[in-house]
Amino acid sequence: MAKTQSIIVKDTTVRSYTQNGMDYICITDIARQKNAEDPNGVVGNWMRNRNTLEYLGLWEMLNNPDFNPLEFEGFRNQAGLNAFTLSPSRWIEATHAIGLVAMSGRYGGTYAQRDIAFKFASWVSAEFELYLIKEFQRLKEAEQKALGWSAKRELAKINYHIHTDAIKANLIPQEIDTYHKSLIYANEADVLNVALFGITAKEWRDAHPDDKGNIRDYATINQLICLSNMENLNAVFINEGMPQGERIHKLNQIAIQQMTVLENVESKHILKG
Q: Residue 42 in contact with residue 35, Cβ under 8 Å?
């Protein structure tokens, strides 16, 4: 199973994970809001309900091509009878359902696809449902923000290969030793660092002796976007034979212009939100 994450909803820890593009939320955790001693009993009572089964069946028919409708009809016909009981594992095994996932073990429980979990939460408590939706949305927004940063960081790394190829083709003499090659690469990397951040990599390390990684690992998304553009432009400038002093001045002006635009766009987006 994918790695679980946790959110706190009204002092209750609720786990979730994402698999095959679907978000699953632990309804066993949600059930503790109603009965902390027997959350599985709460889930079982919910599944005995005819309205619940009809919702689960409809969800599966819309989202699961392998769903077994005949078994579903059998369960639905029994729903409401005093002797009728249904566990998540029995439902999954009989109907090949994917909307519920039963996990065993110390950290196990019953997980439900996001929409089903919200439905269960509304059955437990309308108030709890609203808080759950709010906290879950906050979690997904944080994930998207982190994903966006990672994507921009990877783009900057890819563009850096274009940058280093231009350096290799135009600035490194033939038969130079590896050590001096690395000095040239580092020197050109600092052209970008100084143009964008105002300091060299060594100056940043000296100022942040306890931080891991390098100056670019601590860049904002806007700085990474700008850095990606500058790497491409510097490669073009190098191929054109532009002197380093002229390049660093030109890149600095571009960095100021692009960062101003990016920050203004972000500020407008925040104000609209």
A: yes
Length, in residues, of the chain? 273
Distance between CA atoms of residues 25 and 20, nearest Å: 14
Q: What is the pLDDT of residues 10-42, one digit of tens each?
A: 878 889 888 877 889 999 999 998 888 999 999
> pTM higher than 0.70 for the full model?
no
Count of other CB atoms within 10 angstroms of residue 122: 15
Q: How many secondary structure helices (H) and strands (E) does the chain include?
A: 11, 5
36 vs 13: CA distance, rounded Å: 12
13 φ/ψ angles, rounded to the nearest 5 degrees: -80, 125
The whole-angstrom separation of Cα 10 and Cα 14 is: 10
Q: From the CB of residue 23, how many other CB atoms can be counted at a distance below 10 Å?
A: 18
The string of DSSP letters for 108-121 reads: -EEEEEHHHHHHHH
